[in-house]
Write a structure and sequence with these properties.
The complex is a heterodimer of chains A (420) and B (696). Chain A is mainly α. Chain A is built from 17 helices and three strands. In chain B, the strands form seven sheets. In chain B, strands 2, 3, 4, 5, 10 and 18 form a six-stranded mixed sheet that branches. Chain B starts with 6 loop residues before the first helix and ends with a helix. Classes of the chains: A mainly alpha (420), B alpha+beta (696).
């Protein structure tokens, strides 16, 4: 057993400070987003900022509780968490409340529970437990399959809601698998798919096929004498690419929903509709872009104050930061995130147990995925995907779930010298 | 440590690379590209124009002539309009659905994102009801503006009116005006537009996503205040202006009264007039068309635009010029046998057989013969060739402001007509002509066109004994009471002061015991001259001008009543009443005296044919003249002087001729006729039939 003093000494205070900074920035931004000059009370539990204060307190309490729990608790109970989450994900499809087209919430009293948020850490825990228990390589097909199943099952259930954004986050866990030995070919394949998908939408199929043909030909030409395997791989890649390219249209037209197609088209500049479908992104860009170097001043952003950006305290909270604090503010927030994520990777790497390490990577990847998609969406780099900005966006489920996600890692880290 | 440890660097590198991409993108849109700041400002910023109060126009006693009243314009920004219950909206502002559609399409055509006026000048009541429910209709808002109000409905042609700017005016102003702005269109409102309009202010406000006002942009740092227009003090005296308008009711004509010692115009009556308030408000368009269609042309500013042969009042000028030329002196006597005989068979009839008359008597009796001799002597016996004698005479007359603009501060002034020697040379195809060829000029008939303003100015010159100030309508501008410098300069007419004495004596006798005896005012010595202007297409024009009192004159007045008859019957009494009212502020004459004038209806019984062309009186003259050219036989058969010359020089218009003429002009050719007519005037000026018939 570890005494109280050394326990707190062992907790990674740098991460805690970053966590607190982001939560604080989040609360002030939400306050600015819902700011109303006529309201007198700063803490008013009927507004988003007031409620968020409540969520923050709950999240911190939960965080402390997690730190006080036994670290074996998470390893042992991870299948239970996963099981419960799956049950909740199924339940939400049956009894959930439909908000904005997504059947993602289970109402409990006056609050709503979003099981997909909890699925992130439950899945991460089980994934960590499974991979850490493996003896063979992850490259082995028999080993990858269960790992993929653990990942894809909740993802599939979330897709049914349909909440593509939350489901997409699970894709980020591919980095975890990569770290644990998955062939880099999967990363490469994922990258190729994105490139080919965008390429096919932007240009005609023939141009894309011609382009990859040339690239592949060059690779074969240079690798011919050195490595015969590469030729085989390249040809395989080429064939798969062709299949992919030819299926893009089908996927695009039959798998994606209409609004998703529109968002992709808007991003790629294939359609221009700043007053209709493109309104959100356009106003978001205007808000961030109008911030300039130093911003318009706290509570002075006109885009924010006068509600030009919809979903401003949740998914588009970054606009408020961009508009009122300018590039100084956005760069600071982005730096804080990058710092936190790199710190988490550092923490992960210093773990003795592979369970903790894998879980650490999962946390880092999930946070990064949220961070990138959310900010990328507000500046028009990524199609509009409704996922929150960790620790900053308004919302109890997401805040608590991210806190749990983070604090489990911090707990594991604090106990890294112990035996799990 | 495991075998894939190095992969941590790959993952970190990917994360860092992606984050840097994000940062670069954000740096670009925040710092490099500034279009977003503009867009953000466009989102929230609304420029509201604050219209300043237009300057008020006061009369010389600081009584209000034109002031402002608030109205409410309904504005629309079509791009912000969301679907709504159109019918409910229409009933709120009391318009029909078709009107609504029409207006909306118009607004849309102008701009989707800029405000345009949807419905003008809602009443306070309508706008109050509308404003309560305006939140239901995004894209619409109410803008406050003030419109003109003319408390006494007086001096319409003097004050003019304001109206929406048209495209040409916008262009001319260098886009100073915006569509829907108001601008002075005529009268004082036009000529003093720059001063009256003031400076527009701008209020920058912020609106939220629902277009609700959310306060001022940058605490009003970029706002400007509206500066009210300058107030103008008109020279007009509302008392006599109103009285003049009453007296001129149901008559066509003008009154112009000038204060001789300043050139300030005291009364400016153009009849028929109209209520200037007709040109304000939602019925403005209809009223405007009604006024345009009125055959008596109320929109025609007669005091400065109607040109008449002056008739006998012109003898005053000839008397002065002749004395200055030493052609006659006050004691020169001519004998009147009942007319002036000239040339081969020329004869200019006089009203009576006057016998021997000196200058004073000739003026008092308005003897045509006397002035026939005088004019003939001036032109033919000046020691120059007659054509040069005429030129010299013309030069002297033009100094009285005849045949040229007086540059009154009112738009659309006409210069009238004082014929040049070249006109006659061209007409007779020879330079060898003399007084006999235009003898009618001696008595103010013939090729003369003089506006009532010019008449009043002439009598002001007489009152001043030799000079005038430019007649003007605005005596002071703004709070500092600025007077334009050109209005304080004396303009001498080149007649020595002593020559005015006999003329003034004669004019005094005109009122005391002469033609205008009926218009004598107790206690005031008024000096005047009547005129009865012949025109071939109707009754004579009644003309009178006068000043009073004889010493230290305070008012000079000219009155023209078209087709009314003798000057002494109508114009002189009207003038005398106004003079008395102005000098004594009361009327000593019995009630029947004024009643006769007030009740008289001297409007044409039926619309005059070609009434649309009744721009100036001489037009009709030319028209008839034109037709006569086709009928040389008629002319020959009328060659006998006795038949042709009835009363002075008048030719009675061959009635048959007019009738055939009317029949011969199909309606659709009217426009063509009109054009050819105008062309004819511009080339030939007006040739009167009088001369043609008497000479040939």
């Amino acid at each position: 057993m570890i005494n109280q003093r050394s326990f707190f000494f062992n907790v990674d205070w740098i991460s805690i400070m970053l966590f607190i900074s982001l939560i604080a920035i989040g609360w002030f931004s939400i306050y600015a987003a819902v700011y109303n000059e006529n309201a007198i009370y700063i803490i008013d539990f009927s507004t988003n900022s007031g409620k968020q204060l409540l969520f923050i307190m709950v999240a911190i309490i939960i965080g402390v509780v997690i730190l006080l729990l036994d670290s074996k608790f998470f390893y042992v109970l991870s299948p239970v968490f996963y099981g419960v989450t799956i049950v909740l994900l199924v339940a939400v499809l049956l009894i959930g409340r439909n908000v904005g087209g997504n059947q993602a919430w289970i109402p409990i009293g006056s609050f709503r529970l979003q099981p997909s948020e909890f699925a992130k850490w439950a899945t991460s825990l089980l994934l960590a437990r499974y991979i850490s228990s493996l003896t063979g390589k992850l490259n082995d097909f028999r080993n990858v399959l269960p790992a993929a199943a653990i990942l894809l099952f909740p993802m599939f259930l979330i897709m049914l809601q349909p909440d593509t954004g939350s489901a997409l986050v699970f894709v980020a866990l591919i980095f975890v698998l990569y770290r644990e030995g998955l062939s880099p070919y999967f990363l490469f394949a994922g990258f190729m798919m994105v490139v080919l998908f965008i390429g096919t939408l932007l240009f005609t199929k023939m141009i894309v096929i011609a382009a990859i043909s040339i690239v592949m030909a060059c690779i074969i030409y240079y690798a011919y004498k050195k490595n015969k395997r590469i030729i085989a791989t390249t040809i395989a890649t080429f064939i798969l690419s062709l299949v992919f390219i030819l299926s893009v249209d089908f996927v695009y037209n039959n798998v994606l929903q209409a609004h998703q197609k529109t968002r992709i088209d808007l991003l790629l500049g294939l359609i221009n509709d700043p007053r209709g479908a493109g309104y959100n992104v356009n106003q978001s860009k205007i808000a961030i872009g109008s911030g300039g170097l130093l911003g318009r001043g706290y509570l002075q952003g006109t885009q924010t104050k006068f509600n030009f950006v919809p979903e401003q305290s949740t998914d588009f909270i970054f606009c408020t930061i961009g508009e009122e604090w300018g590039f100084a503010g956005t760069a600071t927030v982005i730096s804080l995130y990058l710092f936190l994520i790199l710190r988490l990777i550092h923490i992960a790497e210093r773990q003795r147990s592979s369970f903790s390490r894998i879980y650490g990577y999962a946390v880092a990847c999930i946070l990064f995925c949220h961070f990138f998609i959310n900010i990328g969406m507000t500046v028009g780099l990524v199609p509009v995907i409704g996922i929150p900005l960790p620790f900053i966006s308004y919302g109890g489920s997401s805040l608590i779930s991210f806190t749990v996600l983070l604090f489990i890692l911090l707990k594991l880290d604090a106990n890294r010298m112990g035996i799990i | 440590m495991d075998s894939f440890f190095s992969r941590k660097y790959v993952i970190q590198a990917i994360f860092i690379a992606i984050t840097l991409t994000l940062l670069l993108r954000i740096f670009y849109i925040q710092v490099v590209d500034d279009q977003y700041l503009l867009s953000a400002n466009n989102n929230v910023l609304r420029r509201l124009i604050i219209y300043p109060a237009r300057g008020i126009i006061l009369d010389r006693n600081l009584k209000v002539l034109a002031q402002n009243e608030p109205v409410y314009d309904l504005m629309v920004i079509p791009g912000q309009v969301a679907p709504f219950d159109t019918l409910a909206f229409c009933s709120l502002i009391a318009i029909s659905k078709t009107q609504f559609d029409k207006q909306f399409i118009k607004a849309k055509k102008y701009s989707l994102y800029r405000a345009s006026v949807f419905e003008k000048q809602l009443s306070a009541k309508t706008s109050a009801g509308l404003q309560e429910r305006l939140f239901e209709y995004p894209g619409f808002y109410v803008q406050n503006r003030s419109v003109r109000y003319y408390p006494d409905s007086t001096a319409a042609q003097f004050l003019g009116y304001i109206g929406e700017v048209n495209d040409r005016e916008i262009e001319k102003s260098g886009s100073f005006y915006n569509k829907g702005d108001y601008i002075g269109k005529s009268g004082i409102e036009k000529s003093y537009e720059d001063l009256l309009r003031g400076q527009r202010g701008v209020r920058n406000i912020m609106v939220d996503v629902h277009n609700r006002e959310k306060g001022r942009f940058f605490e009003g740092k970029y706002d400007t205040l509206a500066v009210s227009g300058d107030n103008l003090i008109a020279s007009l005296d509302k008392r006599i202006q109103l009285m003049g308008e009453q007296l001129m009711r149901n008559k066509i004509g003008s009154i112009v009264a000038i204060e001789p010692e300043t050139g300030e115009i005291l009364a400016f009556v153009s009849s028929p007039g109209y209520d200037p308030n007709m040109m304000v408000g939602r019925q403005r368009g209809n009223n405007y068309m009604k006024l345009l269609d009125d055959s008596n042309k109320p929109m025609f500013i007669r005091p400065t635009q109607a040109e008449y042969p002056p008739g006998s009042i012109f003898k005053i000028i000839n008397a002065l010029v002749a004395q200055q030329f030493q052609t006659i002196d006050y004691n020169t006597i001519y004998s009147c046998p009942g007319g002036y005989r000239y040339g081969y068979r020329g004869f200019m009839k006089c009203t009576h057989v006057h016998g021997s008359l000196n200058l004073i008597g000739a003026i008092q009796e308005s003897c045509n013969t006397y002035f026939g001799y005088t004019y003939a002597k001036m032109v033919d016996k000046s020691g120059l060739r007659p054509i040069n004698g005429f030129r010299k005479w013309r030069e002297a007359v033009s100094k009285f402001g005849i045949g040229g603009k007086l540059d009154i501060d009112l738009p659309g002034e006409r210069k009238g007509l004082l014929p040049t020697a070249e006109l006659y040379t061209k007409r007779w195809k020879s330079e060898r002509w003399g007084s006999g060829f235009n003898i009618s000029l001696s008595i103010g008939q013939g090729e003369l066109g003089i506006t009532p303003l010019q008449m009043a100015n002439v009598v002001a010159i007489v009152a001043n004994r030799g000079f005038y100030y430019k007649p003007h309508l605005i005596k002071a501008i703004g709070a500092k009471k600025i007077i334009r410098p050109e209005f304080t300069q004396k303009n001498y007419v080149g007649i020595d002061t002593q020559y005015f004495s006999p003329v003034i004596e004669g004019m005094s006798r005109v009122v005391k015991q002469g033609t205008a005896y009926y218009s004598k005012i107790n206690d005031i010595e008024m000096c005047g001259k009547t005129g009865t202007v012949q025109n071939p297409h109707g009754e004579n024009h009644s003309v009178f001008f006068a000043f009073a009192p004889r010493n230290n004159p305070k008012i000079a007045i000219a009155v023209v009543v078209e087709n009314a008859g003798y000057g002494a019957t109508w114009s002189a009494p009207i003038a005398s009443l106004l003079v008395e009212k102005y000098l004594k502020d009361s009327i000593s004459r019995p009630k029947y005296y004024t009643d006769r004038l007030l009740k008289a209806n001297l409007l044409p019984k039926k619309p005059i044919p070609l009434a649309s062309k009744r721009v100036k009186d001489s037009l009709r003259l030319v028209f008839i003249k034109d037709s006569l050219k086709k009928l040389p036989e008629t002319k020959n058969s009328n060659a006998k002087p006795k038949d042709t010359l009835k009363r002075n020089l008048t030719i009675k218009t061959p009635k048959k001729l007019l009738d055939t003429l009317r029949k011969n002009i199909p309606q659709k050719n009217l426009k063509k006729e009109k054009d050819s007519l105008k062309k004819y005037i511009s080339t030939k000026k007006s040739k009167t039939i009088t001369d043609t018939l008497t000479k040939k």
